[in-house]
Amino acid sequence: MEDLRINPVIHYVNIVKPEQKAGTLWTRRSFVDYQIQFMKQGSMKFELHESGETFVIKPGEISFIAPGELNTQTLLSDEQDSYFDCVHFLLSPLPEEKAYRLPPRVRSKLDMELYSNLFQRLYDAFHGSGQYSSEIASCIVKELYLRLLETDETQDEGGAARVKEMTKYLDEHLTAHPGRSELARRFHLAPEYINQLFQKHMGISPGNYVHRQIAREAYRILTREKLSIKECAETLGFKNQFHFTRIFKKIYAIPPSKLRDH
User: Of 1.20.1090.10, 2.30.110.10, 3.90.850.10, 2.60.120.280, which CATH number belongs to 9-150?
Assistant: First the structure.
């Protein structure tokens, strides 16, 4: 799975209403940081001068601009009918030593209520005076960034539906520890293609998905039922306790015996 350990440093968060003299044209500028902009009302045209890209975001859509991209933003709607949120940030407090995966330039068909709430919470946290306001704001930006990285299932509805069907099958046959070979037989797909689908839509392989679900069920059993570790392993289809312990520790970074120490 890709490394998504980011620790955003926020430079600025704003709710912009152009009618309040914020302006309607922001011309030929580049940022030292990332900008995410969420259009709530109205529409905005973006021109990226070096790449030649031009695009428009409308209500419920989000744009993403990376540091150093020379751009011009032009409001296309009336000032009174326009309203957008934006945040400027870096992905790490240190100079970025690796290339992070970037979100699409534009994300559409979003959950309007979800993103409106995210930006409002972000604004309140960033401009708040609480002891942990900055840390809370950073967590919200991380959530926002990761949500934008998620696969747009509207662009691949067939693939998303297949993965959903396959994960349902894996969940129903968890104690048999099915993997991609079993899925290939059951769904008449090539194992390599199944891996691609899981990586694209879930970020993990079918085998890792099964291990994660088994570990979660093991945690539930060991904390809520009066079964020994050996009995738990047998209940979940393991032939020996050692294999079960290895899988559990891989997922939770602690052996299952630790749950019995408390």
Answer: 2.60.120.280
